[in-house]
């Protein structure tokens, strides 16, 4: 999945790159698995803006992805590899032997025509989904559940992978892409392999219009505002903030840790911030 660059016919084209989409086998998604999306542009149910810098963008349909992989012990053939505008990874359409069709995240190394299966008796090879209890130590995994039966919620972006390090009691220790080591219930399902589309992180957007196509609106620096609009605003000329970085509402930003989740935080064995 290499990247394509352009001749510098304009300033926007000079550094712009994109995927060659060589792995894509069809441009037509499977319509029964599509859902219409309501573009809320960062607004809540009262119409008030709660997330800045969002709006516009190209219209797109949502693909229902089988993150649970709960169709156990039924082999499926990977029929197509498709582009999904809602995520960085590629998705593939599975044709199960009983006639059902579902989408899954396509791992690196899985090709059209390959067979995958989910269940505790499945072999630990690329594309198969198993409980962590049945996956050998050292295996590369992705699409990992946090709560058994809820569906994969961790390690789903393009090119990401986690590693199964150890099993102790009812929990397994998994090293996340960030370097964090986390305890996960052995009953949780995970898919073997690394998420595909490895070159996604190397793409260069190249021009502002491409960000607008993705629904990202421009951001204004706080130091360019007035004091009433931002804590960084004001001053004669280009003045430094004179204080630790803050959000427009005065909360600490840029490095200050704000995560306080005792329920999931107690499962962290090694922090991603720890220097090794």
Description:
The protein is mainly β. The chain contains 3 helices and 17 strands. The strands form 5 sheets. Strands 9-16-10-13-14-15-17 form a 7-stranded antiparallel β-sheet, with no helix packed on it. The chain has helices spanning 11-14, 208-213, 262-265, and strands spanning 3-5, 17-19, 34-35, 62-63, 76-82, 91-96, 101-105, 115-116, 129-131, 140-142, 144-145, 152-154, 162-168, 171-175, 181-185, 189-192, 268-270. It is 5% helix and 24% strand. The two termini are 33 Å apart. It folds into 2 domains: 3-201, Nucleic acid-binding proteins (OB fold (Dihydrolipoamide Acetyltransferase, E2P), Beta Barrel), CATH 2.40.50; 224-276, Ribosomal protein L2, domain 3 (Irregular). Strand 5 (76-82) and strand 6 form a beta hairpin. The mean pLDDT is 94.
